[in-house]
Every structure is written in C-alpha cells, then in structure tokens.
Write a structure and sequence with these properties.
Length: about 180
C-alpha cells in the first residue's frame, strides 16, 4: 500500500509566501514567465496564458500515480503583493534513490532575479520537505547554469557525479 499523497501547503519565508498552485494563477504567471531567456537551459518557450492555464489544470489535478505527489507553488513577494516565480517538488514513496524522496525545481521571473528569491524559496521548500520526512532531495541542473547551481547549494544540495539528460544531479540526503 502506498503512502497518502502529500498536499502542498502555504510556506512562509522571510520575504515570500509559497502559495499552493491554483489554476487562477495562470494569467499572472504567464507574464512572470514570459521572458524567453528563462528557457535557455531547460528548453521550450514561454506559454500563453491559455496554455499555462491548461498546464496548471493538469498539475492541480495531481499525478495519476497514487504513490507520487505533485506539489507546486507560486512565489508571492509580500512587499509587492505580486507573483514572482514558482517552486515544485515531485514527492515519491518509491523514489529511485531511496524509499521516500523528492525532485525539486524553481524558476524566478527575469525582473526579480539576482535578489535571492530563488535561494530563499528553495531553502523554504527543502525545509518543508524535511518536516514531511522526505529523506532525499534532488535537483537536475545544467552544468553551465551557475545561478541555478548557486540556488541548489544555498538549499543544502551538493553536486554528484551522476548525470541525467546532460544535467548534473544535485542531492541532499538526510538521516532518518
């Protein structure tokens, strides 16, 4: 029997509220994520509000695998009362690296980069995962993406010798 799904909950950091993703966030997030430069290392192109809404509908519906939880948040900058990015965690009771792990990712819109929001959000996410007994956290980062590597390091992850699809696997493993 698999463990129950893990629901995303609001996470509060010094400057950000990590709010569980809602379909209604799509219009504002389409603007936040509209810079094509955000896709330099991950590929693809910015989505239209309608396409992002459809994507968010799929994400909010959750994983078809009952042993996998898709936890997605938008980053709300409290001082400006606006959305500035996203973080996500795919939590699996059957993680390939151990019996309970998560893969994480983050994106901060171009106008808000360079202010530490991605690091703050990633740290908040890793702390939240730790409180849910997630023992292993991984992120996949393009070897030339120094900014993303700095975010991973700030969140406590370290690079490994493992690669997947040309990206370096970064890992944080805690003891039970």
């Amino acid at each position: 029997m698999s463990e129950p799904r893990v629901p995303a909950e609001t996470v509060r950091t010094a400057r950000l509220d990590l709010l569980p993703l809602r379909v209604e966030h799509a219009e504002e997030m389409a603007v936040v994520l509209s810079d094509p430069a955000l896709h330099t290392f991950i590929g693809g192109a910015p989505l239209s509000p309608a396409d992002l809404r459809a994507r968010y509908e799929r994400l909010v519906a959750g994983s078809p695998d009952p042993a996998v939880s898709w936890c997605n948040w938008v980053l709300r900058l409290r001082a400006e009362a606006r959305l500035v990015g996203t973080v996500q965690a795919t939590i699996s009771a059957r993680h390939p690296l151990d019996d309970h792990g998560a893969e994480i990712a983050w994106t901060v819109g171009a106008p808000w980069q360079g202010r530490g929001f991605a690091s703050e959000a990633a740290k908040g996410l890793v702390d939240w995962l730790g409180r849910r007994s997630v023992r292993t956290v991984v992120a996949h980062i393009h070897p030339a993406h120094a900014d993303s590597a700095a975010v991973a390091a700030a969140a406590g992850l370290a690079p490994t010798d493992e690669e997947q699809d040309g990206e370096t696997r970064w890992r944080l493993t805690s003891r039970p």
